[in-house]
Amino acid sequence: MHDVWVAGAAMTRIGRRSEPLTDLMAEAAHAALRGAGLEGPDAIVVATMNPEEFLGDGNFASHVATHLGFAGVPALRVETATSSGAAAFYAGFALVAAGLRRAVLVVGGEKMTHLPTPKVSELIGRSIDPYERRYGATMPALAGLVTRALLARHAVTPREMAQVAVKNHAHGAKNPLAHFRQPLTVDEVLESRMVADPLRLLHCCPISDGAAAVVLAADRARVRVAGIGQGTDTLAVRHRRELTSFPATQDAARAAYAMAGFGPERVEVAELHDAFAPFELIALEDTGLVPPGKAGRATLDGETALGGRLPVNPSGGLKARGHPLAATGLAQLVECVWQLTGEAAGRQVGARVALAHSIGGLATSNWVTLLEAA
Amino acid sequence: MIQAIAASRCPTCALTVAPPAHFCPRHPVEMAPAAVAGVGEIVSFTTLHSPPEGFRAPLHIALVELEGGARFVCHGAETRGLRVGARVAIEAVDDVYYFAHLGALDRARLFWRRAGHAGDRVNAIARSLAQRVWKGSSGAER
Ligand SMILES: [Zn+2]
């Protein structure tokens, strides 16, 4: 297997955007290529979760390649629901690692804010098992089930969950590309509207537009892909034995650490999939970054805040940076690259190893990626 | 009164799922038909305050571990006082499944049995509870 390097990384501002998705993806893609010093890639991997429904556009790899000005370049699309960006990164990684390509552009994005919120929820919810959907299950509903089970086991407290959102908003305030840049208090979270009891509105990430891109190359650059792993689980939540941790994350982490040849002890900064605040606490333990049962305490103690032992979601995470679905897995990796290369102005951690964790569906297709500064 | 619920069991790993599935989610083998009791324990539950189209707010959804092993997703008319681990009975109304606190249902049955009206009345109660949750009469087959 050849070494794979991240030669360029870029993303758009995340939020409510009026531009077409293809323009957002072009902005990120062209900037990543400029960063890599390349005129063009020799292959393109596109990540979008559902442009057919959000935009009415299909054949999206060709659509994007043509729009970018790379109509002659081989292009394919990768989809694993909300973790599509991380999956596309893996596909690009595999092409270079196998020696099939020398410079692959991986670009992901989603445009959602032009649709009403119930429609967006319904479209995202199509990644849920059809039988459970017939009972009204949405992503917040399933996350509500997970959260209730966590609270019942005393695995987390309401204050610890709220602190995740508060911390990530504080981080987002330092990120000029974040969707939300205003701080939040614990009381505001605890008093926000109930969405899927016991989950409240301010435990949940927003609906956002945006795009992110990286160039993966065979030639040495400043950041190396040290390890990457996928873990999967049953589509139906009722087919699982475990509700308060995600085996798909644990399997992905094991695979990534095995490929990297090191464990969680070397990780100095992480981007975790906090679509719902308690998911960050679950991910902290599933990835081995904190010992079982300690994620809530570590969060309250500031260990995972900027300036703490292990800053988590310095970008603001899904909660504050925003969650444009297929852009998110790549946006996390872009933040990790910037943290490793000293380009995260205002929120710089100073790390040599970064971890990104992305959840697809209700933890049916999860990814853990480890990046290392050269 | 408490119905048997159609399920399927994996001949390889004994995983039981309800409703039945063709193949085991973890093994590429055909599952064998099975039935599990319509009683179990609440694994978790939630209430949606802005439910998807076609459902009335508030919408109660529960994950129940049935006796016999299968986990089951169903509605409920009420979650006040409900706890994880609580014993519940599953009732079907127009092919839509609901949980009810076992104690309360049992009490209702005993009462109506003494009054000389057995199943009909309990079903009528369940149906009226259901209508508070469900807009149409056959909404589950949307
Ligand atoms: Zn099996």
What would you call the shape of chain B? Answer: globular
Low-confidence stretches of chain B: 113-119, 134-142
Helix content of chain B: 10-25%
| Corresponding CATH architecture of the largest domain in chain B | Beta Barrel
Please explain how this structure is put together.
The complex is a heterodimer of chains A (374) and B (142). In chain A, helix 1 crosses helix 3 and helix 4 crosses helix 14. With 374 residues, chain A is of the alpha/beta class. In chain A, strand 5 and strand 6 form a beta hairpin. The longest helix of chain A is centred in the N-terminal third of the chain and has 16 residues. Chain A has 14 helices and eleven strands. Chain B is an alpha+beta fold. Chain B has two domains: 99 residues, OB fold (Dihydrolipoamide Acetyltransferase, E2P); 34 residues. Chain B is built from two helices and eight strands, in the order E-E-E-E-E-E-E-E-H-H. In chain B, the strands form two sheets. Chain B has a five-stranded mixed beta barrel with strand order 4-5-6-8-7. Chain B is globular, with a radius of gyration of 16 Å. The C terminus of chain B is likely disordered. The chains are: A alpha/beta (374), B alpha+beta (142). Zinc ion binds next to loops of chain B.
